[in-house]
Amino acid sequence: MQRILGFSKLCKQNSKSLRLLSLLVVLCFAVTQAHAQYAGGDGTQNNPYLIQTPAQLIAIGATPAHWNKYFKLVADIDLSEPNMEAYNIIGTSRTQSFSGVFDGNDHTISNLNLTSTRASYTGLFGYVGGQVRNLVLVRPVVFSQGSDVGALAGYLDSGTIADCRVKGVDVSGDDDIGGLVGTSTGRIINCSSTGIVSGDMYVGGLVGLVLDSTINTSYSRADVSGNVDVGGFAGKTGDQTSVVDSCYATGSVIGGTYVGGLVGQVERGRAYKSYSAGSVSGNQYVGGFTGYIRVLGDVMQCFWDIETSGQPASPGGTGKTTAEMQTISTYSAVGWDFWNTWTMCEGMNYPVFLWQIPATDFLCPDGVDFIDFAHFASHWLDSRCNVGNLHCEGTDVNQSGLVDFFDLEIFCDLWLEGVP
User: Fold this and answer.
1) Do residues 1 and 23 make contact, with C-beta atoms less than 8 angstroms apart?
2) Cα Rg for the chain, rounded, in angstroms?
């Protein structure tokens, strides 16, 4: 009996320790489960969760508790693999948004295919209040019966999307439809879209509806169609603090009312140092650059091609011939920056961004070809490359001081690369 009583007393004395031990076991199990979902990391800034498979990407959307964590893509992902689970949209509403950081690490996610009956917020990310960067989406197909639809994000709410590209998009929905983002109230920088974008109202090649948002050095080559507020780059800027600065669009635009080569309607906000060059057609309030500008809207130092657009007039911007649009002085005369922002092969094409040019595209025309190879060969084994000789006229790609096989390897990797 004494032994039994002694054991009972011992249990009472250690009950607090046992409860603590049980809690630790549960916590350890939860952490182990989180680690098993991904390829590594703990979701912190210095040790982000690592994503390398479709299943791991899908797991993010299935785990709202992780939507405030850090993620890093460490491999290209193809979402068309057989026997794969349905994709889970990451961030579904204002109260359950993705507020973390997703670093694509310059990898691609290809063949996203979403058909949604959701009322709003459809895309790889549905609702974003955090950051998405360095990501390439290839051939995403997104169909929705609702609003706020974009291949990358349905709604960007005060967050940031930077250095992201969408190639070969096919996106459609009702209102607020964009090749990259449906509605933006955040910041977008160095992003692009190509493909097809269609909807009813507020439809744009890159962004459908721009509200209290800043968009810099971004472009769209998507073909856009819609009914009201349709633009090659953005459907509508609808807030006085919205800024579209140094952007361009070259895709075709077809719409009904408020149709423009760059922006369908500038209700409020400003567009600076931007251009459009795609064909534009519509029924009412149609312009080469923008379809309509209201009292609180402003367009400055902007241009459109009167020949390719088929539009001789526009409420904003200055119309130029194709030859004038391919002349640097057209833009430099009004302060466009061809040192830090823009570049162009004069007489051959329109301005593009410096960030678009492959590192080994040394000479015109655009694209890495035999002309660039001849230039590279002429500097083979040049030494003492530095800033003074602009790193031997660009051929010392890794800036080691010597043009050698390491630079040749980079050149070969970029062979026949054009302007993205």
Assistant:
1) no
2) 26
